[in-house]
Amino acid sequence: MAISSDLGDLRRTHYSSELSEGMDGQDVTVMGWLLTVRGHGSITFATICDRDGEVPIVAKKGGECPDEVREALSSLKAHSSVAVRGTLRASPKAPRGFEVVPAELRIFSRVQKIPPFEPVAKTVKNIDTRLEARPIDLRRSVLQHTFKMRSRILRAVRDYFEREGFIEINTPKIISSATEGGAALFSIFYYDKPAFLAQSPQLYKEQLTMSFEKVFEIAPIFRAEASRTPRHLSEAISIDLEEAFVDYNDVMDRIASLVRESADAARSYLDGAKEVAGGDVPLAVPEIPDTIPRHTYGSLVDRLQGAGAKTQWGDDLYPSDLKRLGLDGFYFIVDWPLGPKPFYVKESKGGSGDAGGEQRQRTSESFDLMCGELEISSGSTRIERREDLESRMRAKGMNVDSFEYHLGAFDYGAPPHAGCGIGLERLLMALTGTANIRDATFYPRDVDRLVP
Amino acid sequence: MAISSDLGDLRRTHYSSELSEGMDGQDVTVMGWLLTVRGHGSITFATICDRDGEVPIVAKKGGECPDEVREALSSLKAHSSVAVRGTLRASPKAPRGFEVVPAELRIFSRVQKIPPFEPVAKTVKNIDTRLEARPIDLRRSVLQHTFKMRSRILRAVRDYFEREGFIEINTPKIISSATEGGAALFSIFYYDKPAFLAQSPQLYKEQLTMSFEKVFEIAPIFRAEASRTPRHLSEAISIDLEEAFVDYNDVMDRIASLVRESADAARSYLDGAKEVAGGDVPLAVPEIPDTIPRHTYGSLVDRLQGAGAKTQWGDDLYPSDLKRLGLDGFYFIVDWPLGPKPFYVKESKGGSGDAGGEQRQRTSESFDLMCGELEISSGSTRIERREDLESRMRAKGMNVDSFEYHLGAFDYGAPPHAGCGIGLERLLMALTGTANIRDATFYPRDVDRLVP
Q1: A144 with A95, same domain?
Q2: A170 and chain B in contact, CB less than 8 A
Q3: Tens digit of pLDDT for each residue in B408-423?
Q4: Interface of A with B in 330-389 (CB under 8 A)
Q5: At A228, which CATH number?
Q6: Which of A390, B18, B233, B406 has fewest C-beta within 10 Å?
Q7: What's the total number of domains in chain A?
Q8: CB distance from A438 to chain B under 8 Å?
């Protein structure tokens, strides 16, 4: 039967990338979704899209293709899921030098609804329109490349951890108390107990340096921040690392390596994709300098004040401030004021504070990795002694007792340690030039969006 | 100063595994936690444990080691976090042919509390005792090996997916409705909306085959099952794969490869670890047969009935049933009854049901991967057409409208697809012989346990 609707025993023989004019006359089976169909009376042109690219299909009346197949093909709408078994024919007129002439067609799923945008649309104005039809939005070329690049970056990150002797961990996402001692947590009913979704694996990854020394986790984190910005998600993926017997300077060195290797992986993906697509890939990976600059918090406050800003020591640095200073590309801001930092962040020893002059206030061994105005990562040296943790908690007005499950670990001797969390979606934004964080994840969650 | 308490600029020069008697006379800095300390008046023996193994420390009165260092060392308790800078001395009497004579000691954290078990304990009777002191429990040799093996297995699994052209995805863990249409979900307050924690990435991974064809995700899943057994967790890691243009037979082939490569990775880790530890690693990896046997559900029911059991067609198969049949090692149970299967599971075509005779009832293109009585994975061919999904949902009494966010995707043409989820902790149990699933994860969550 030349037309049917079930996969049965038919399997793809080639991806689009595996076809070439040199295979003239060969029997091939291709599968995918229809990008375009155009019937001109006695001839039908179609394009099937698969994971790797496009396959041109040509069905002529009176040719090798059965009439019923040509007619069925021309009746289909874009996005339909199909398989074509047929003969590859070299064709100098075709963009890639060949086309496939169908002998058999399988129609797995017909399109029931007019899609809200064209599959070849380079941009679609309203992101909500796209998110409502995310399964076909993700078929668009720019998102295909973004997410394939994301997969490669994750691979590069894990390669780095593997090579450097880190152990992969998983820590619980359902927790009994707030890590950072505060707000922005989602509440959950855990059987008969109140519980929360973890904002970070912080306390667990710290504990695990006691037994595994160097650990990493790549997993979801949850933040109940009602921010409507292009850089906040309520559910995101965090690349966390934590290491014993090092301080925040060592961690910054690691981050610099991770960013460089991620960029290399992204660039290598793009080079390959451009070769296949003939240069038409609308993404670009920035160059990463050999040394990522480190600016102390104090020096930036000085510069802001010098430029007439009202910023005071202790204030946060806002995107508008960083823009004002013309900070661009990747850079670290180090040695933040101690006060606002979480209880587990270590205070700087004398001299490690402001590079620009006397140390005006207590600073911490902490850093943010920025790309322009976008915060990508935050990290620090952590406190390894229980009494120091408790005194910081009390200074912050936290309930020490509710953290006994964590503080108890420090009774058994914790090593000095340091670490950071890197926002995967934000790293991807910086490496691909993606403007909205919702396009750096598959199904974004924010204050307004719980579906699809 | 020969004794201090801060890491400062001191860094480890060697891991224990990098030291050997050939380095006689060399200055080394080692760091870790104290496994043992024994003072005999004028001589103190200590063992420092790091990520790779043990370093013997010997401090003699009147030798190279300053008295104050020897005394401070002998005052320490096991588990304390320390660094020793000193000289490596070849010593034929020492187990590995060398020892380190300290010149300088740093004491980062002193132990404040008597640990509830010895760090060298091979077994500890009460698992709750261990879980309450998990950071030091994880220092015990058997758990060190289990979790390092776990990290290697994850690596092998991802290598397989990479090689086979799968894209890594992440799907939302906060969802608006129940995937399997039912119970066992944790409820959550999502801003002003009710929501749930995802039991599986099922619907999202299915949708993503429309754009990426072959996808995988390794991420937490959440099940509110109040089961108190050695094989249930409320939060676990699921290895999910989903693939377009294949059926459940192809997926079983993939699982067989994944299990084989995971076992190879585990075995290769064990071989290396045994070399370092001199054979003393209490874990063993089973042989995986070239072909993992496939038993139809129907044939097992026939065998049970033949053995006098009361099992009826349509009943679940319980561990006791499988034990009765003497099923051992890895095997698949295929072609389960359709009725109890989730709405997205595809019905078998005629002839694919019971191999033992006529098809007595409707079966599904589904399988479970078992290891003895332990279910490791569950998978199936999925339905690709909206009308078929809806009719299955209605037959199961589900609210079709509340799944519009998912069903809507099928209006745009979904490919035939199939997939499975593999429980990482259960796979690890099967590959290491770990008896309790709580020791196949770092910080288990169950109906009774939310901390640490």
Answers
A1: no
A2: yes
A3: 999 999 999 999 999 9
A4: 384-386
A5: 3.30.930.10
A6: B18
A7: 2
A8: no
